[in-house]
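Format notes (please read before filing issues)

Several people have asked whether sequences and structure tokens are stored in separate files. They are not. Every record keeps both together, in the order shown below: the sequence lines, then the token lines. Line labels are part of the format and must not be stripped during preprocessing.
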Amino acid sequence: MSDNENWRTHWMTYEGTGTDRGIVQDVCNGIRMVAETGAGDPVETVALAVAGAEAAEALTQALAGEWALYTPGQITVTASAVFGQLEGVLSNLHAIRATLDRMEARRETAFTDAACDRLRHVAELEELPQLVELPADAHELLASVADLLGPDAEFRAFHEPNAYEEDDSGFGCGCEVLITHDGEVWNLHRGDSTWSMVRESEGKQQPDGSTTFSSWIDLDPTPTTSHPHHLRAVPYL
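Then the structure lines:
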């Protein structure tokens, strides 16, 4: 193993040794819940960033105590974990820069200075112009996705313009987008607090006029106001 891999094993194998009293799992459970499925939307991404920042600040306070660590072994595990944080921070800053570059390429913001200079002064990020307005609700998002897909998509509205108000039901406004791909028609809609796609060919008409489907695909971007480009980019086949 490389030196990098050697020091990583210290904190990666510490959990479950019996000396950790299960606290590592208790503290990390929330982070692992998000990480196991992969952060699928900005809310989860921001949550991971905030959790990392709070953990770093709490560790600084803990290490200030005279009896924070008892043994060289505990120092080894802690130091290796801190180096892991440092490695992650550097990677994350590069990833954030790439994210800003992609936003600029989509003409959703613009830089007056180099992205790397902006990242050295985080407060300046709030001054970046937002050149697009994201959808305010499920109806606007469906319409935006249909517009992005062009002739391959048909937006079907089932209520009058401006007649929809967002609520907490998680089922959107009832409208849908029909997407034609390789001769198959897919139905994109909001249901049960997620964005889903079903094959129109699998739909079964019910006596009350509704249509039911035996299977569907839940998409990764779950918020009602996901970014239209994010929803469009999800592979549905």
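For reference, the curators noted about this record: Helices lie at 3-12, 23-37, 42-63, 72-105, 115-120, 138-149, 228-233. The two ends are 40 Å apart (CA to CA).
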